[in-house]
Amino acid sequence: MNRKYRKTVIAGNWKMNMLASEIKPFMEQLKAELPKTRTCEMVLCTPAVMIPAMIKAGKDCKVAAGGQDVSKYAKGAYTGEISASQLADIGAKYCIVGHSERRQYHGEDDMLINAKVKALIDQGIIPIICVGESLEQREMDLTMEYVAYQVKAALSGVDAAKLRRCVIAYEPIWAIGTGKTATAEQAQEVCQGIRAVIRGIYGARPARAVSILYGGSMNAKNAAELLAQPDIDGGLIGGASLKPADFATIIKATDQE
Ligand code: PEP
User: Fold this and answer.
1) Catalytic residues, which ones?
2) CA nearest to 124, candidates 153, 96, 94
């Protein structure tokens, strides 16, 4: 983390878990575990139907609500889709884009992800742009080339002013939901590489200001070491964000120099 130049973000990704009725007890437990002062932005990305309940329950511990996906279209005959303006209208401040589960199970490609990023920025929602390599790509030593391509494609046509409204999440696919975390060195190396890619496109200042998160089996035990890395500005957390005590421990781990 480098709090002098950028904000620290801890974002939970609940995926297709939990019920709206479980949010209040979850938030009560989380609130009891949270430190009085916090040095990070806290976000919970829920299924869209739960966003209003999350905003209501999360108000007094300042949790921002986020979506997990968005349509690239502004409005119209797209049954089952949800637009960026609809997310903004119900109070979403963030939205995950390009999660590997959407790339894998829904065939999302980099062009589509770029369109979604722009749709969110236009509505004032901060996209959390997920990038990351497969195990095969890592073993072939293609990690940085592949991740650099994903970053460039997602940000194509996004100017420097708008980049300030974006968060990048490096999530190696082999570490998501597997219990296999990237080592702090591996995660730092790629997050530093992502910052270098952004520097190449936008210059030093915007690169220094962009928050880059790590995601992939981050948990209460390994968070402090990962968050101590200079280019890791927070976490995108799946499994551990479903457990209030663990999520609170990760948030507490941001309180380090
Ligand atoms: C994720 O889904 O973005 C994620 C990082 O999941 P987990 O923490 O469970 O690996």
Assistant:
1) 99, 171
2) 94
CA of 176 to the centre of ligand 1 (A): 5
CATH class of 9-31+38-252: alpha beta
Contact call for residues 187 and 229 (beta carbons, < 8 A): yes
pLDDT in tens, 210-240: 999 999 999 999 999 999 999 999 999 999 9
β partners of residue 170: 131, 214
pLDDT one-digit tens code per residue, 89-126: 999 999 999 999 999 999 999 999 999 999 999 999 99
**DSSP bridge partners of 63:** 42
Distance between CA atoms of residues 207 and 140, nearest Å: 28
131 lines ligand 1 (CB under 6 A): no
pLDDT digits (tens, 9 = 90+) for 16-41: 999 999 999 999 999 999 988 888 99
Q: Separation of 42 CA from ligand 1 center, angstroms?
A: 16
For ligand 1, atom 7, name the residue with the nearest CA. Answer: 238
Cα 224 to Cα 2, 228, 229, distances in angstroms: 14, 6, 9
Q: Which of 157, 153, 245 is nearest to 194 (CA)?
A: 153
Checking if the pLDDT of 137 tops 70, the result is: yes
CB 171 less than 6 A from any atom of ligand 1:
yes
Q: Return the beta strands (E) in the chain as ranges.
A: 9-13, 41-45, 63-67, 94-97, 126-131, 167-170, 211-215, 234-237
| Ligand 1 center to 49 CA (angstroms) | 20
Euclidean distance between CA atoms 194 and 168, whole angstroms: 9
121 lines ligand 1 (CB under 6 A): no
